[in-house]
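User: Look at the shape:
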Amino acid sequence: MSKKIERNYLEIISVNDLNESKIISEEYFIQLVDPVSFQLNKFFYKNVGKKHQWTDRLNWTDKQWINYTSDKSIKT
């Protein structure tokens, strides 16, 4: 049995393309993770990915996760 898997990415090319939300929540916020945490990325990948059949990085070593999250174009 085969299942089609679709992966989507959010890419922000220009800050000018962002639209400010009309709803302000004091319950949630967005914050850049600094310093970089490969463990957090690995955790999200495994836990969020369970429902979406994310499997290609499940066998990555810690060194592979560190290399991935050290890339300046990757932000969490």
